[in-house]
Specification:
The structure holds 2 protein chains of 2 kinds. Chain A is α+β, with helices and mostly antiparallel strands. Chain A is built from 16 helices and 14 strands. Chain B starts with a helix and ends with a helix. Classes of the chains: A alpha+beta, B alpha/beta. Chains A and B meet through helix 1, helix 2, strand 2, helix 3 and helix 8 of A and helix 3, helix 4, strand 1, strand 2 and strand 4 of B.
Amino acid sequence: MTIAALVAGLLAGWVWFYQPLPFQREPLAGAVTGAPTQVSAAPVPAPNAGACTPRAGLTVATGDDISRGSHRRDVIADWSADRKISATMLEVSGSTDVRRAQLAAAAQAGSCEYDILVLDVAHVAEFAEFGYIKPIDLADDSRFLPGPLEAGRYDGRQYGVPFAADAPLEFARKDVDTTGWALQLDDAEAGTINMLELADVLDGDRVALDSAGWQALRDYQRTAGREPVLAESLSYDEDSSLKAFRDGRTHLGNQVTHMRNWPIAFHRLAADPLMRRQDGTLAFQIRAPRRGVLGGSVLAVSAHVGPERERQALQLIEDLTRHDVQLRLFACGGYAPVLSSVYAVYAAGHGPDCAALLQLPRPTAASEVVEIGPAELKDLAAQIKTSVDRSVMRPRTAYYSQFSQAFRSCATGVMNRRVSEQVFLDAADSLTQALSGRTVKDPPC
Amino acid sequence: MSTQQAEQGKPTWRDFVLPPFLAAFFDSVTEVLAPLPPWARILVFLSTGLAWYGAKRIKHVWKTLSTLRKSAPGLLGAARIAVAVMAGIGVAFAFSLIVDLSTPEPCAPATEIRMITAAETLWHLTEKARQYEKEQLADGCAPVRVTVAEAPALGRLIDALNSDWERQDTGGTEPYVRLEGLQPDGWIASSEGEAQLVEAAVRDPGLLTIGAPVAGDQLVLAMLPGAARRVERELKAAEGVELRQAWQVVTGKLGMRVARPYPETSGAALSGAADMREAGLEQAERGMLRAPLPSLTVTKLLCAFHARRSEQIALFIPAHSVADYNDAQLTAQAKREGCPEIGLFGSDRLEAVRLQGMHALDYPFVSMRWPRQHSAARQAVVDHFASWLRAHPLFSESAPPDSYESRSLTETRRRLDTEIRPSFGLHVLVDMSGSARELLRAPASAAIRALPDVLGPKDRVSVSGLAAGSRAGPARLDELAREASLEEMDEPARAVEAAQFRGWDAAISAALEKVGGDEPHAVVVLTDGRLDNEEPGDAATTVGRALQRAESVTGLSVLVVGGGTCRVTQLKGTAKPYACRAVAEVPQALADTVLTAKGWR
């Protein structure tokens, strides 16, 4: 009887106390009648194995192919030529933020239009957490650089296979005296990255705001130990800052001698005859900064593709991360490789240039084509590797884009002298909440 | 009970309360237990309790339970045990609940909504979207996130809607496609007429749903205060003046010129063209090709006006754009469009001359239903945003009309294309030197394919490759297309992609001498080059004279790609139009140039 009473008490207690309370019930999804009321988020559909209508062939949704010569497109086209199933590269947008919104919206609609998503590493956590992409079992992950590999991991599982590494490089012109820096401080993700680097506030997955960070932002134009940053940087993105560096001056006439930019800027500059001296050597040099923010992209599989397409997508991902493909994308396109083997080849002095890889005829005197030689690629590879090794990751949170906007708003306010030190430091709570997706104070600074 | 009692082996209140209390504590602070079902967590509670107190104390618990049972006969005793156990579970639950309630749940993913609208409406829609997101916050979590982008021009919008939002840069022959920017869930059109024009041109009848207006506005004639005073004096009243009368005073009596964006690329301007037609100003419409400040959008027009700020120019633009200019709300958008004036707008405030009898710009909310991206739940959120916008109009100065002022713009557009606009000739010269190979091959091909967006059925295009055989050698023009119609752009585009690009920079002055042709045509050069190979003398003079000598060439535009710069910004020795600019997006830049060049005569 005692045992029976014990069991009865357990069952009764469970039923009584562990049913959801009324205020814990989920609100209804936003049906609207008459005057607008509060809306609730639409539920994300479960992974849709084959019920939606995919495009013919595999679709790789990515940003603009900014490589010199559209080599990403060519690589995917070559893959299709050798297979029964074709693959198409779909350029969604050159804007990281627009690309994120587009891919997230499609995933929320249960769309299987895109098989492979080329994601910015900052968005892996969001897409993994909310079920937009599937985990991937990597057969051999030791071939990848540790930083980019880790950037594709979330909650202990690999969701993104590294595709292109990105870590900042510092570019300096050799032909003029030292004067001014061009950064990317505009209202976009590149701005967040540059501001995080300026303020040096990243600490693992945390953002530690301190007085030194506030000071560095406020006095960004004359941060100790470097040449002044030009105020025009507040409206610059990667392309406009590159243009200013190439021109040697801003649109307002101020001289530009230094630039912080991604490795792909190297190919765009080095292929320009104007950035070469008479003897053919480069008119600028590069080096890895002391510390930067890790960028880059990964290849992820959409959660809404069926098993057969998933298998094909994984095959394409494996082929896009082969040594020869990564070598080509680097030597010809300027994309920083993610495989240790590529860096090893260049470090050993055996790295080829694009003409050798593609067996193209060498430029002659009858042509003004400028090729980037093996020695230049060797130096570039070494600097990229150093920068990747020194770089730190942005906070890995499913709400990174919200945090990014909030931080950028604060940092811009500091740079424009509108946000005091105390207000900046007090924003730590708001920014911490933003990492959890919560808006405590709007604007945060 | 006391410690002494506990030492004597008698159960105390701590024997019943502490074990589940501690287990609940661990439950709440440890994620390990959280995924377990409640029954498993209860077992953990009991096990924790038993483990904590050790085997000896099990006897006390058992003895206590037995005591309870014996304290009353039969079922009552058993009931007391059950209640005692429930009480223990209740304590555990209560503690767990307290801890859980103090730890917020993670936010659910915000529903992503994508909106597009015209350039001059972008700032307003973005502000409203931010306000909407803020009002919908629940416990700090955002259930909705709205991304706003500029809508493509009318022609490209229709093409994109008919091709799954993909740009037709490749003619379907290449293994890559591009989206036409952000693929919208909703579009705020400038007028119901514009929305209907697009709806009629879209093949999928279920793709668009034209909803209720979310703003109301009207076109006005905007000008600097001095000009406004003169106009008012002539008209005797600022309010209640009809368009025809105002136009005649402004352009006739006062000798001013009216500028507006192109109706081909601006919905507001197309509505204005319909107003002009209804006001009997079709002759004036013909003259608009030579209007000052040719611009694709209202914001680009305001940017161009800001650089000049002339009292001799009146702007035919929406009223809210006048307020935006005066309040410096367009700076961010202007920067995005490459407006060189980075400073604030509004240093000379514009005044609006309001006009009677104008049709309303009624900004309907047009929902999109993409077949491969549709979900009822997301649509409900889009509809909710549309309803909210109706209750919170885009422009605070005027409420949206209760219903549409229905007016078709189809006839206006047809007449513009076929009757009002004269035929236009264009010759595109593509720099095929070696340095331009990777910078121009794909973009130039895409730009040529996109030309039909801005061409009419009477327009003709020639395409040639331009290069020299050796450094500073004579220019060579390789003809890729001669006077092709807009349906024939595929072939020259493919020819550009297949070209070798192995020559040297050729002198543009030499190319101008070779373009030939009897019909007037504009020349556009796509190059990565630097115009520093013109000899003898300086390039500005050499190219200027060559342009002047080329009788059939109405004007020259040079688009420099790949981060190069325009070394020659003005020509000498010719009054013909000339423009040189560095561009990042070749198809867009070529379209801009064509619309500008249509005004060269």
